[in-house]
């Protein structure tokens, strides 16, 4: 799992300021502890490059909102640990509803989003203000003895895995519906189209898994299908050029030979190494 950790600007210590607000100190200690624990997990890498999930700490209307919009565009699931920044007493305009924060506007949010509250009061407030969002309760080990740093990190890692799995399932369901709309009776063609669309989703996010290329090349080699009909279906999906360049990538990686390409390959101008 590739995880990006990002702290809201308001919870980052000012340079040269040794007298930080308590909330800032707590947030920095929590993120530092979590980063340290995550580095011990074999299947997790902390990175800003092509993350599978973005974990945000704190909330402000502009910077964090832009992260959420970016995550929505790139189809990346998100977790927000508000660090009490969304509590009523911390609102910059207490007489206004929280809709100004953007969390009540589904069009500006990632399709897969989870909030993590650190107390029961915070959880209740978040559920009341954002009834359409899921809110998980996990204590903050920096301020409570009810949970250890190790248990906190273990629960966070479990949430990462669960959220990524749910998101991936939703993506695959959307792809299934898209392929079904073609009314193609040949299951072999449908299988190739599904795999192609999933690689297209990965490419949209900026990286393609080697396993997906291996799987697609094996499927093209193993299955029998009408190549002219496959070409028509690719055209219907708007994937002709994408697939033709993908063939070149698989050929360059010695995963596929010309005899198993349903359409002529094109020069690869889309996929980077």
Account of the protein in words:
46% of the residues lie in helices and 10% in strands. The protein has 8 helices and 6 strands. It has helices spanning 22-38, 63-74, 120-129, 149-180, 187-205, 210-222, 227-236, 240-252; strands at 2-7, 45-46, 53-57, 78-81, 113-117, 134-137. A 6-stranded parallel sheet has the order 2-1-3-4-5-6, sandwiched between helices. β1 (2-7), α1 and β2 (45-46) form a beta-alpha-beta unit. The model is unreliable at 93-100 (pLDDT under 50).
Q: Strands of the largest sheet, in order across it?
A: 2-1-3-4-5-6
Rg on CA atoms, Å: 23 Å
Proportion of residues in helical segments: 40-55%
Question: Structural class, please?
Answer: alpha/beta
Largest sheet: 6 strands, parallel
Spell the H/E element sequence.
EHEEHEEHEHHHHH
Strand content: 5-15%
Cα separation of the termini: 20 Å
In short:
Helices cover 46% and strands 10% of the residues. By secondary structure, it is an alpha/beta fold.
